[in-house]
Backbone:
């Protein structure tokens, strides 16, 4: 199996089923990654795990050093990345605790270090981003969900906001008009940086809450934690099926 990494987000700071073999801190030309890289065996298959927000969870989405994270993973030989992240649900199927495997992205972030192609260039490079998520990895996730009997949505447009605040209902209405099904804060520039490095990348979006204005009242952390707990239990089963079928 090509070297696989799992990047865990909110609700997935550690992979409890990972048998840890090795932990290492790396530094990169872009600064320090979010946390140590944990190499281990997940259901008999070697993987590398990284906690996107640090361990403990202290780095907010707009302060994550996405370039250092992806560069270090590539340096460790990783060529496939599964990115787990909590999202808000915008369109009707995206109810709390549901899982979606998005196929498109709209980037609403700003002021993030979003490319490796910046300085000391011999030529200007524009990566193709027609398929921001790897179709082969996504198909394997669909098969794994089917195998594990987990109802998922196989497509969806992920809108990435700057955070760390949640959105206004008007912003969510605008995003829905743009075609977004899901809203999160960490999908970009992560997906684009993986592509710049030639790595296959797919996201497992775990719905933590209805996006702002999509349910009565305000969004509470207690609500998010409760749904994430359920969603992450399903994600663990999905990952188990994924590695077992690999
Ligand atoms: N908006 C943005 N990011 C999120 C949300 C949300 O509602 N829920 C979890 N991550």
Residues:
């Amino acid at each position: 199996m090509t070297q696989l990494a799992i990047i865990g987000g909110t609700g997935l700071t550690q992979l409890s089923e990972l048998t840890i073999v090795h932990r290492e801190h790396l530094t990169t030309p872009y600064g320090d990654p979010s946390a140590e890289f944990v190499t281990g065996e997940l259901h008999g298959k070697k993987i590398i795990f990284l906690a996107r927000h640090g361990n403990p969870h202290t780095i907010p989405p707009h302060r994550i050093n996405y370039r250092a994270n992806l560069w270090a993973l590539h340096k460790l030989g990783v060529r496939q990345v599964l990115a787990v992240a909590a999202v808000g649900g915008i369109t009707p199927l995206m109810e709390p605790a549901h899982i979606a495997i998005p196929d498109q992205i709209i980037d609403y972030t700003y002021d993030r270090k979003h490319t490796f192609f910046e300085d000391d260039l011999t030529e200007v490079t524009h990566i193709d981003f027609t398929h921001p998520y790897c179709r082969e990895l996504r198909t394997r996730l669909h098969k794994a969900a089917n195998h594990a009997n987990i109802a998922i949505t196989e497509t969806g447009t992920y809108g990435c906001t700057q955070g760390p605040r949640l959105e206004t209902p008007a912003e969510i209405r605008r995003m829905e008009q743009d075609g977004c099904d899901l809203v999160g804060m960490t999908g970009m520039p992560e997906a684009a940086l993986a592509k710049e490095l030639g790595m296959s990348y797919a996201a497992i979006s775990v719905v933590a809450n209805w996006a702002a204005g999509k349910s009565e009242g305000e969004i509470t952390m207690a609500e998010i934690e409760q749904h994430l707990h359920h969603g992450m239990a399903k994600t663990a089963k999905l990952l188990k099926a994924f590695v077992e079928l690999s």
